[in-house]
Amino acid sequence: MNTERENGHSIVETQTVQALTRSGLSHDDALVVGVSGGPDSTALLCCLSRIRNIFPLRLHVAHLNHDFRGKEADDDEAFVLDLAKQLGLTCTSEYQDTVLYQQQKGISSFEQGARELRYTFLLKVAHEQQSKFVAVAHTADDLAETVLEHILRGSGLNGLKGMSEVSDWPWPHSERQVKLLRPFLKINKSETSLYCTKLKQHFRQDTTNDMLTFTRNRVRKTLMPILENEYNPQIQNALIRLSKSSSIDLDYIEQETTKLWNDMAIRDTSPEQEISVAFNMRKMSALHPSMQRRLIRKAYIHVSGETKRMTETHISTIANLIGATHHRKTIHLPFGLMAQANSEKLRILHRSKLSFDNLPIGTSEKHFTLPIQLDEPLQIHLNQTQFRFELVPDNDQYKYVHSSGLTQYISINSIGSRATVRFWKPGDKFRPLGMLGYKTLQDFFTDSKVSQVQRHKIPLLEIDGEIVWVIGHRISDNVKIQNNSSGTTLLKITCNP
Questions:
Q1: Which residue among 23, 70, 325, 441 sits deepest, i.e. has the most Cβ atoms within 10 Å of its Cβ?
Q2: What CATH number belongs to 3-147+159-240?
Q3: What is the third-level CATH fold of 265-351?
Q4: Residue boundaries of the structural domains of the chain
Q5: How far apart are CA 156 and CA 339, in angstroms?
Q6: Strand partners, 366
Q7: What is the pLDDT of residue 160?
Q8: Angle at 11 between CA 9 and CA 13, to 5 degrees
Q9: Distance CA 26, CA 6 (A)
Q10: For the chain, what is the radius of gyration of the CA atoms?
Q11: Buried (b) or exposed (e) across 137-148, using 16+ Cβ within 10 A?
């Protein structure tokens, strides 16, 4: 037994004290601890409790029941509540239906839905406890797996960085006060299990960790062992080194990006306007492509508050506008955003719903027949707004026209001919793009932060009794363009308020 263990201080406890010291936490600060009941989080909670004589903190336990494993999840919750009681700590637990949340938010990944729910819950508890930090039990194994998973997705430096010991709050991204703390990031999973064993502390086993339907489990259970056994026995350490070197490079790049951002970004956050960011096109054209893309990424995050669902395609599509046009071009992006470019400016903004601001409240509706074969564009007018319908051949560029803006492309194979342009009525429902089920328009407008007055100005396109487009916001999932649609014909719809 080494000297550390003989003196009663395990490596786990020593590493944790060092991590807390580096984090900026002060003695007697409040700290929320996310505990699932598994070996890692159980070890973290026990460790933080045991080292209070060295680094005293006001600990509060937080546990979220994801309602995915029935009685097993309920038993996990009971275990965490009992453990907190044994340690003399207060605990907040909450129940959330992850599958329902997926359906409501149109999220295809269960893992992503659970993650968003988990961090929203932990942030709420942090605010209640007036804590500036939330500790979670991510380990060195988790860091390596995260980097590998990001490599598989083709991530850039941000993905290769993986996780940091202290990081900004991951969800929602608008949070600026609370930080996420990972005291175990230099500790292996084998050490956390051994730590619990030495303390004779029981922990829970999550059976979903063995389910290979989840990407992370396949990386952990299948890919990492193959890489370790057949390519590099030290693959975990190699991935962690890659994370560290990427983090160093990224830190410098972010410093330079911040300087350019402060000098070049023209931000509009007035109450009358939604957040937007613009750049001088001449200055942008003079930058290295790396800096162009960094500024675009920062602007996208600034306007949308979103990082997880931003893809390389989005960045590349916007970057291609730089220096490439003398006429105004518009690209539609997820989350109700668009990028506009002309010879003077590149702008990323929320503009769709504002286009209807100066129009009167809509009460009328227009019924018309939508021929499957349009020899020439069909135009109708309603509430001082022109609607244009035309058939166009499908090609790859339309795959990147997302659910926003004032122009949309939909599959004619999924529509009929009886069409109506009208306005919101109580009880209206539709199936937003990416969602498994239907939701009321009232809930959709509430989630999209559309005011009561604005709701009555936004036109709706209805075909055969089904709302297929909340104009300026999102189309229905029922009329989306399929990946195998190339070579077919699409219906292009343009709205000009």
A1: 441
A2: 3.40.50.620
A3: 3.30.465
A4: 3-147+159-240, 265-351, 356-496
A5: 22
A6: 421
A7: 94
A8: 60
A9: 28
A10: 26
A11: bbbbbbbbbbbb
The reported pTM is 0.70
DSSP assignment of 206-239 equals -GGGG-TTSHHHHIIIIIHHHHHHHT-TTHHHHH
Cβ pair 318, 303 in contact under 8 A: no
CB atoms within 10 A of CB 467: 23
Condensed to tens digits (0 to 9), the pLDDT of residues 72-93 reads: 999 999 999 999 999 999 999 9
- Rounded mean pLDDT, 32-39: 98
Q: Is the pLDDT of residue 126 over 90?
A: yes
Instruction: Please give the DSSP secondary-structure letter assigned to residue 481.
Output: P
Q: Which residues contact 144 (CB under 8 A, 6 or more apart)?
A: 162, 224, 235, 236, 239, 240, 243
Q: In the chain, how many H helices and how many E strands? A: 17, 22
Q: Which two tokens stand for residue 243?
A: 């994370």
Matching fold, domains 265-351 and 356-496? no
Q: Pull the structure tokens for residue 166.
A: 């202290």
Domain boundaries 356-496, corresponding CATH code: 3.50.40.10
CA distance 115 to 170: 9
Mean pLDDT of the chain: 85
Whether residue 282 is predicted with pLDDT greater than 90 in this model: the reply is: yes
331: left (phi over 0), alpha (psi -120 to 50) or beta: beta
DSSP string, 181-198: E-TTTTS-HHHHHHHHHH
Do 130 and 30 meet the contact criterion of CB atoms below 8 Å apart? yes
